[in-house]
C-alpha cells in the first residue's frame, strides 16, 4: 500500500509540474516573437514526453498488478524464502540462490507467463531492476497473447 501511495503522490506532483511547464510554454508562444515561440514549442515538448512516460509506467504497473492478482488467486505467487540482514535487507547470496531456481524454471517452460512473473520478482530481489522490468514485460506480453519483442 505504501508503494501505491508513493506512486500516486509522485504522479500528482509530476502532473502539477507538467501543467506549470505547459503554462510557461503557452505564455512564451503568446509573446509572439520568433525566439519566444521557438522556446515555447520546445518547452511544450517536455510535458508531452513526461505525460507519455507517466502513462506508459502507469499501464505497466496496472498490468503487472493484474498478473499478481491472478497468480495470487491461483496460489502461484512466489513464496518469500529469502534470508534478510538484521537491517531487513535481502541477503545477496540468498537472492542469487532463488534467482538461479527461477531462471531454471523459466528456461524449462519459456512460454509460461507465470514463470516469467516469478523470474521478474527474483530479478527485483537480486537488485537488477532493468532485467526485472524486461521479464515482467515478457510475462505481460505472454499473458495477453501479444507477440514478443526480442
From TrEMBL:
<keyword id="KW-0812">Transmembrane</keyword>
<dbReference type="InterPro" id="IPR011990">
    <property type="entry name" value="TPR-like_helical_dom_sf"/>
</dbReference>
<protein>
    <submittedName>
        <fullName>Tetratricopeptide repeat protein</fullName>
    </submittedName>
</protein>
<keyword id="KW-1133">Transmembrane helix</keyword>
<feature type="transmembrane region" description="Helical">
    <location>
        <begin position="33"/>
        <end position="55"/>
    </location>
</feature>
<keyword id="KW-0472">Membrane</keyword>
<feature type="transmembrane region" description="Helical">
    <location>
        <begin position="7"/>
        <end position="27"/>
    </location>
</feature>
Amino acid at each position: 500500500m505504501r508503494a501505491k501511495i508513493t506512486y500516486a503522490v509522485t504522479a500528482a506532483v509530476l502532473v502539477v509540474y507538467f501543467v506549470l511547464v505547459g503554462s510557461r510554454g503557452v505564455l512564451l508562444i503568446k509573446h509572439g516573437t520568433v525566439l519566444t515561440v521557438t522556446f515555447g514549442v520546445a518547452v511544450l515538448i517536455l510535458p508531452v514526453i513526461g505525460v507519455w512516460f507517466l502513462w506508459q509506467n502507469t499501464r505497466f504497473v496496472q498490468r503487472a498488478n493484474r498478473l499478481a492478482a491472478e497468480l495470487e488467486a491461483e496460489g502461484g505467487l512466489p513464496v518469500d524464502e529469502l534470508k534478510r540482514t538484521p537491517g531487513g535487507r535481502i541477503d545477496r547470496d540468498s537472492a542469487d540462490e532463488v534467482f538461479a531456481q527461477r531462471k531454471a524454471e523459466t528456461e524449462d517452460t519459456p512460454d509460461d507467463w507465470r514463470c516469467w512473473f516469478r523470474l521478474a520478482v527474483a530479478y527485483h530481489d537480486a537488485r537488477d531492476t532493468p532485467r526485472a522490468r524486461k521479464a515482467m514485460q515478457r510475462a505481460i506480453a505472454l499473458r495477453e497473447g501479444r507477440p514478443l519483442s526480442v
